[in-house]
Design goal:
alpha/beta; single chain; electron transport; ETF_beta_N; about 250 residues; electron transfer activity
């Protein structure tokens, strides 16, 4: 069973977002594996334990992604591909086109990815890739059962569960509840340093991966002022509330 895991590095979820010159500042920031991608890595490891095979991590991002890739290799993945050429970076369209192009050159039975990246949060990349590859897509998996030809997936649908079958190869995205990602062991960390990490050139025409969207502005949410509690007799409170909604909130 050849398994590809799409792995994105994101800001640590505890990080405070700071803007500098209209851009999100990466100064002093801790980076982690996108939490949903950790479930994908863990599930790949469990499938490999039962079915054998090879786990390859695939990432598109800058050099700093290597630290997260090494963590996933320390968890037990076998090898990794990092596409760190800035010419390949762009919007969801660009990222999916580039990743799909590289996937087409790999051998795979199963592709696992997070169902959303906790930073940019578009939840688009895996679906787009499955569409380009012409393979089934199953989102938000909380249980995956597999034989050599088929997969049965229990998927989270807003708190309910839907059971879906597909034949391999298939692309599945992972949801919280699927598993408990393991911590890398010390021997795992030592071994990970020597596991293969390739940074291949991707031959793809610039026009074919031209971003379809443009970020016009990035800004923080406006600061919320403290709430107000009205006191006193109920008719007086109602009158004061109307006056506040009219004069201050200007919503009536
Ligand atoms: C270095 C860098 C430069 C960028 N430059 C631009 C830019 O110029 N213009 C612009 O509009 N946006 C830019 N982005 C944002 C980029 O478009 C989004 O990160 C990307 O499209 C993925 O969208 P998402 O994070 O919302 O992924 P989602 O679709 O929410 O991610 C779902 C899953 O897809 C997989 N996945 C997503 N992205 C990657 C990846 N890069 N590598 C491997 N797996 C992945 C993961 O498994 C992830 O859990 C940049 C991002 C990075 C990291």
């Amino acid at each position: 069973m050849d398994i590809l895991v799409l792995l994105k590095q994101t800001f640590d979820t505890e990080e405070k977002i700071v803007l500098k010159d209209g851009q999100i500042s990466e100064e002093g920031v801790e980076f982690i594996i996108n939490p949903y991608d950790e479930y994908a890595v863990e599930e790949a490891l469990k499938i490999k334990e039962n079915h054998g095979g090879t786990i390859t991590l695939l990432s598109l991002g800058p050099d700093r992604f290597e630290s997260s890739i090494r963590t996933a290799l320390a968890m037990g993945a076998d090898q990794a591909i990092l596409l760190d050429d800035e010419n390949l970076f762009g919007d969801e369209y660009t990222v999916s086109q580039v990743l799909a192009k590289v996937i087409q050159e790999q051998s795979y039975d199963l592709i696992l990815a997070g169902h959303v990246a906790v930073d940019d949060g578009s939840g688009q990349v895996p679906q787009r890739i499955a569409e380009i590859l012409g393979i089934p897509f199953i989102g938000t998996a909380v249980k995956i059962e597999l034989d050599d030809q088929h997969v049965t997936v229990h998927r989270d649908v807003e708190g309910d569960t839907e059971v879906v079958e597909a034949s391999l190869p298939v692309l599945i995205t992972t949801q919280q509840g699927l598993n408990e990602p393991r911590y890398p062991s010390l021997p795992g960390i030592m071994k990970a340093k020597k596991k293969p990490l390739s940074r291949p050139d991707v031959e793809i025409e610039k026009e074919a991966i031209q971003a379809k969207t443009e970020t016009l502005e990035t800004y923080l949410p406006s600061k919320k002022s403290a709430g107000r509690i009205l006191f006193g007799e109920i008719n007086g409170q109602a009158k004061e509330l109307i006056q506040l909604l009219h004069n201050e909130a200007k919503v009536i």
